[in-house]
Write a structure and sequence with these properties.
two-stranded antiparallel sheet; 112 residues; 2 strands; elongated; mainly alpha; 5 helices
Length: 112
Amino acid sequence: MRWQALLKADAKYTATGTLGAALSSYTRLASERLRGRLLDLAERSGPRTVLLAHDAGLIARYWKVGGRELMTALQQSARRHAARAVAAGPLGGRTRGPRRRWTAGPWRWWTG
């Protein structure tokens, strides 16, 4: 799809609220590709990877044609990693993590 045609289709969507077939197909394909790239990057980066979606406006805008599926896949991936971390035990498999205590004084600090 040419960029000008994409902008025109998006302007029509803004004006009418109706998503054309070409724009719908394009956004669904784009979100599938983005999902694949993000999940692959997260898998290669490890279980403590954080994805900061600082501008998720396009995901919200095209929620019905791929945005929802993209967010759902990212949430499921995060939950899988969290479940693996919990199964490994506290602090990466150690049987017992460090104990923290509350200390009194002019300032209260967590120590461990």
